[in-house]
Amino acid sequence: MSNEPGWDAKAIGEIAADHYGNFTKMFEHHDWPERGQDMMRKVQMHVKEQYGSIAAFVEHHKASQ
Question: What is the pTM of this model?
Fold first, then answer.
């Protein structure tokens, strides 16, 4: 993973688009309740809770390609 500021948000956004189609579909897939602007405030929390870290989330989705 990169030490570059914002790498985590960029990685989550790319995975949301590439693997799910968009943030709403990613939230629906994971049964995360927020919608609209609330998604952006909660996405990193949900990813860390479900996958352990942003890096693990990225690795999980690389493996499933």
Answer: 0.90
